[in-house]
# Entry
Amino acid sequence: MYDATILERLKNLEYAGIVSGADAVGQVGSIATGSLMKLYLRIDNGVITEAKFKALGGVFVLVACDILCEFLTNASIETALTIKSDDIVSALPGLPEDKLYMAVLAQSLVGDAFDDYYKKLAKAKLNEKK
Amino acid sequence: MSVEREVYLDNAASTYCNGEVFFAMQPYFITNYGNSSSLHQIGYKARKAVEEARVNVAKIINADPDEIYFTSGATEANNWILKGVVAASPIKRVLISAIEHPSIIEPARWLSANGVEVEYIKVDENGVISIPDLLSKLSKPTCLVSVMTANSEVGTVQYINTIANICSQNNVYFHTDATQALESVNIDVKEMNVTALSLSGHKIYGPKGVGALYIKRGTRIDTLIHGGSQEKGMRAGAYNLPAIVGLGKAVEICMRDGNTNNTRMKKMRDYFIQEVERRITGVKLNGHRNQRLNNNINFSFQSVSGESVAAMLDAYGIRVSTGAASCSEKLTRSYVLQEMNVSDDYINGAVRFTLGRATTKEDLDYTIEVLVDVIKRLRSISPVSVKTEVAD
# Structure
């Protein structure tokens, strides 16, 4: 039994989709484990102007991704990097203990996305020098 | 899309209590509440009701009434047969199928932790027991084989006659858990050569908390519940009188209306399967296509999570399950589908729809419409490239 707010959010996943030409893409999980999350970010002048996700998994996987994208939209890079899994847990009423790792997975998407972002930046700088 | 109706398609988890059953039970709460062990008139009325129920339960599986023992449900019956037969036998070896219900698997694990050798009989990709594997495992002395009549999750009906006869030829007791199959499958314990059989009330429109174990006369079995002398000293505890009356009535209705219900249910089941396969691609019917329970449909949808499908359907008033109800609580991958070698891409996308006597074609049409939309939405969110799109 899920909290009504969770079911309502599941029906209206506002941030589901892709950011075309994303500045950062993060991915965690696998098909084999049944939970796979992908995060797409557009970053302008150090601020996330657009955040979208794609996910395969249970209810909390999908809703956690949607909540994460809401947190990330219009956040500065500094703020985005301070998002904790506990922040996501607080926004997921009724998340069972054995599903807490989903919030951790969602949070680690941010790290993975920024890893991609800084790699891309470094590569771009390298190309400029060339 | 809005919630248009409430559709209950989780009848394998539990059914509603039939009105006739409810009214048959009522006097035994209020007026005929005696203890059937008492010698006075109220006690006699209670005893008479218990024995009438016993006759009905015996009749539906062609057993003799004195071979029926009332229990608190199929879980107790399953625990009793496994632990009781092992305790009474010098041979400490048991075979169960790999896709049994947890009420067989867990007692078997407990036995295994207490020095009993337990082996699991393999199943094929349709969930059908491997007879060669059974024969090979029977080469060692065994006291009991337990194979469910039909699987609760994928609905596959086993070749019970064959398995029972193989066991009989090898002088091994054979038990079958018929909890899901009582209304769908014709069971004749004498013809089938079955040693023991479990059944439950709440899967056949009877009350919860009551079941029965058929034990063939002469079977060596120890008691599980010790105490008073009820059930010939084999199962202690005051009779759950209203529930036993309810079980007897539920069984009577199964015998009376079974054919009509089965014909109707099978027709609706096949319609649902046909429509889902026609309208949604990347879908796999789990379990045997023909040799399955009349009310069971188990589909895996490629590249989506069954849990999300079930929750979305729930949000639209449609109640289904992602597998056995007990597994749904744990939200874990189905061990039944794993044993059937269902691929990674499909195994997490399994949803079970089990029809009931109250299910209508309109319920199914609404479910199909919502399902098509839900799968389309979930696939549009999935990061896995889905080659198969929902057919328009």
In short: Chain A has five helices and three strands. The first strand of chain A starts at residue 24 and ends at 30. Helices of chain A lie at 4-11, 59-72, 77-81, 85-90, 100-129. The radius of gyration of chain A is 15 Å.
